[in-house]
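Quick one, tokens below:
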């Protein structure tokens, strides 16, 4: 069937979708609501509630403190092993702990300390602001001059690959980038950029927050050194779920955790007074695992593994292509600009649209039309596609409602509203 802007075409694509049944594995309390914010907070899997109920009733309620030795101390590794399958790593290379920001601090500082003669961290201006704040904090604590070189994107959409290559030199300790850029969804070539860092003798740290569960990530194949990322986005692990971190196996013994706590101690129950790092990736743990918010990572990662990242990526590409075609015919004439790459090969799973009235349109979409997108300053409406549960009909409906907002001027009354995020 040829592309068309009619509902029947979206329904045809849904009928052909071999992953369509995964939608039933998620909670849809309001069938009218079109949710396009899975790139910020993923939907709740149905299996999460029974898991948490069991955790509360059976494990906390009945087993009490015995559970620490019966699985809870191992949860960062058990959950990490599942996440490893999603990001192309070995089970012994990933743990779940802390937030992405804290994990970035631990790994970036560890990397900088492992390159003592070097004075530069290279990144780009498409990186998530928290990542830059963390790097600035690292420059404050390191006992040597250390600067951050922030390479600007040529168009605020694509990564500045050529300029990065020119900036990475033998004074560079660390290169760190967000793999799928949070605003535009541009995706870096992980193997190529990692090689640039390695050729200069630097370490490479990837933020996979918008990649894990949305694009095929092959950390091992790319010979990546270090990575961090969120689990509450495409890994559907819930608000505040802890993040993951990855350290390539052969690097683990060479790097030290600067937030050296007892959970990363070699023999934690000996309660010795001098810190000795645990073997393997466990040394990057710090404090008590946040069991209640960590357990849902098992469900989220298992769903992705069951669907298979190759199949999910194929569906995501098909869906963003469909959305961009709809943009071209339905939204471009109304003043919407595409703020994501046109080339699917370098585009993740959300599509950013710019508009001079983006903020009031975003509010009207939420309040008048029951579509939940996501907004990033100054004029970005991000439409996040989570191929596990977003349907082609969702995309069709969101575009029709977006069009109706502008055509009917429903955003006019939101002009004065204070700006923020959704
Ligand atoms: C790309 C990226 N990096 C880092 C973060 C920060 O994560 P956390 O709040 O878990 O530290 C986010 C949060 O949305 C993000 O999108």
């Amino acid at each position: 069937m040829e592309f068309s802007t009619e509902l029947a075409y979206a329904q045809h694509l849904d009928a052909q979708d071999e992953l369509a049944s995964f939608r039933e594995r998620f909670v849809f309390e309001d069938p009218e609501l079109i949710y396009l914010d899975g790139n910020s907070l993923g939907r709740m899997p149905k299996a999460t509630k029974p898991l948490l109920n069991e955790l509360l009733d059976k494990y906390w309620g009945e087993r009490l403190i015995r559970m620490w030795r019966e699985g809870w101390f191992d949860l960062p590794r058990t959950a990490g092993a599942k996440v490893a399958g999603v990001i192309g790593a070995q089970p012994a290379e990933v743990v779940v702990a802390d937030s992405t920001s804290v994990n970035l601090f631990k790994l970036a500082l560890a990397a900088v300390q492992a390159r003592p003669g070097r004075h530069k961290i290279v990144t780009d201006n498409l990186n998530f602001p928290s990542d830059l704040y963390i790097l600035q904090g690292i420059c404050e604590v390191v006992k040597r001059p250390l600067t951050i070189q922030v390479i600007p994107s040529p168009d605020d959409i694509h990564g500045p690959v050529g300029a990065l290559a020119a900036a990475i030199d033998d004074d560079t300790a660390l290169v760190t980038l967000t793999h799928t850029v949070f605003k535009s969804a541009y995706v870096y070539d992980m193997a190529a950029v990692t090689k640039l860092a390695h050729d200069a003798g630097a370490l490479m740290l990837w933020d996979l927050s918008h990649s894990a569960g949305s694009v095929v990530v092959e950390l091992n194949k790319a010979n990546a050194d270090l990575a961090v990322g969120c689990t509450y986005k495409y890994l559907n692990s819930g608000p505040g779920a802890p993040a993951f971190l990855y350290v390539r196996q052969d690097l683990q013994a060479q790097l030290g955790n600067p937030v050296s706590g007892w959970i990363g101690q070699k023999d934690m129950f000996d309660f010795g007074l001098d810190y000795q790092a645990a073997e393997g990736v466990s040394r990057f743990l710090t404090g008590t695992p946040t069991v209640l918010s960590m357990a849902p990572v098992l469900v989220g990662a298992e769903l992705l593994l069951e669907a298979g990242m190759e199949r999910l990526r194929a569906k995501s590409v098909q869906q963003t292509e469909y959305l961009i075609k709809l943009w071209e015919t339905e939204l471009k004439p109304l003043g919407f600009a595409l703020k994501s790459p046109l080339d699917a090969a370098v585009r993740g799973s959300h599509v950013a649209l710019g508009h001079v009235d983006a903020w009031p349109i975003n509010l009207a979409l939420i309040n008048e039309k029951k579509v939940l997108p996501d907004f990033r300053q100054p004029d970005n409406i991000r439409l996040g596609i989570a191929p596990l549960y977003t349907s082609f009909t969702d995309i069709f409906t969101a575009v029709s409602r977006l069009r109706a907002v502008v055509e009917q001027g429903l955003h006019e009354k939101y002009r004065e509203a204070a700006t923020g995020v959704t």
